[in-house]
Structures are given as structure tokens and as C-alpha cells.
Amino acid sequence: MYSFELVRPKTLSDASALLEESGGRALAGGQSLVAAMKLRLAQPGTLVDLSQLNDLKGIASGGDALTIGALTTHTEVAESAVVRRMIPALAELAHGIGDRQIRNVGTIGGSIAHNDPAACYPSAIVALDATVRTNRRSITADAFFTGMYETDLQHGEIITSVTFPVPKRAAYVKFPSPASRFALVGVFVAQTANGVRVAVTGAAPCVFRSKELEAALGKSFTTDAAKATVVDPSGLIADLHASPEYRAHLIPVLAARAVAAAG
């Protein structure tokens, strides 16, 4: 690990100013960033620790939407009675992230800002058509994730919360790596007020919507419709775990399981 300076601002405005002045990185739960630093894959000269910003923590419901603070941990989301009542699929997704240590420390804001290609939360953001709120603006789900480990966040911009519209029904199913619990492929299916949305993680450099599955499930929200859908392997990733063709095969299989789980 390279040397770095750690600062702990007390306010959101101070945190943003420190990021702009130092050119450093924001530290939320640190479950991804610190690991990358240990491997010398990341070299921030300054870490701006957000842990003192209590306004970025918590879960609130309002009408037909659920808002989760950026520093809310995976465990808090998984165990929240409010989340389980309003969007149970989101609680189940959080419960399946990593191991207990990661869930107790990792945060929703840190996860989506890091945007690992195999992370679970990006699929929920996209499938549920969530809105990512920062200290400067609101960003739609379809505009937020832009590429591998890349988002629409600008320098000095900090995620403050994520607002999820409550779907009619939804579910997330992943084929996890047995070692990391990251998704080899993960599929989040949501039937929303504006139609069916299907988001896929782990299969490409960045989370994406499956237009083929959305069209099929929009006509018939059934497991048979999902299973009958053919996914083009073009653009999917290949690694030691799976080929693009195998990932393309998994996507409709997992989508069918998600439809069944959604009821």
C-alpha cells in the first residue's frame, strides 16, 4: 500500500471541498477501495473519510418511495423492516452481498460509486429506476453508470442518498462466485408502474438493461417467457469463470428464477 493522508471532515461541504482541493478519493465503507489500495491498484494521496457525516445514514419511507442514505450499510438494508415491507427484493439482495464482515461495513453509496462490474447494487438501481442524489444534483439510474468502474459522478461530488420507487413486484437472483460472492451473473427483474425493467450485472463491463427480456416479460410476466428469451453474447465478458456464451445462457435462466421469486 502506498502512503496517504486520511482526513475526517465534519460536514458534507467540507468533504466536497477537501476532495476538490486534494484530488483524493472519498472513503465510505472501504471494502473495495482499501482492498484495491492494498494491491496497489489505487493510489489516492488523500482519503476523505465520510464516516462522520451522519446525515448520509438512515432509511426513510415516503408515499410510494424508499430513500436510503449513502452511508447505510448492507446489513442495515438487509435487516430493515421498512425495506423488507416495501421492497423485499432489495433486502434480499443486500443480505447476499459478500460475508457478514463486508455487510457490516460496506455501504450502498460506496458500492454504486465504485461500480464494480460484478456488484449487486447497480442492478437494483437500474431495474428499480432509482434516483441517485448527490450534494449537487439528482441523477437517473440510466444515466448514472457509464462504464467499468465509471459513473457520472464528477470530482468533488458525493452521493448522499438513493431513492427507490416501490415496484409492483421484483426479485434478484445471482449465480455467485463461491469465493467472493460477487455475481458471475446477477439478474434483477422489476415490474414497475412504467413497465418491466430487467438489469444484469456480472456479465458485462458495466450493469446493463436486457431489452430482450424486458420485451418478453412485458408481454408475459412468466418463467416460460424468460426461459424462451435468447440473449446475444456479443459484448459480454470472458474470464476464467465463464465464457460470454455461458453468461448469455445464464441470463434468461436467472431471469426466470427471479420472475418465479417475484410471484
Structure description:
With 263 residues, the chain is an alpha+beta fold. Among the domains are: 1-49, Uridine Diphospho-n-acetylenolpyruvylglucosamine Reductase, domain 2; 169-262, Enolase-like, domain 1 (2-Layer Sandwich). Helix content is 36%, strand content 25%. It contains 12 helices and 14 strands. A hairpin with a 6-residue loop joins strand 13 (195-201) and strand 14. The longest helix is centred in the C-terminal third of the chain and has 19 residues, at 244-262. The chain is globular and about 55 Å long.
Number of helices: 12
Average pLDDT reading: 95
CATH superfamily of the domain at 169-262: CO dehydrogenase flavoprotein, C-terminal domain
> What is the molecular shape?
globular
Order of helices and strands: EHEHEEEHHHHHHEEHEEEEEEEHHH
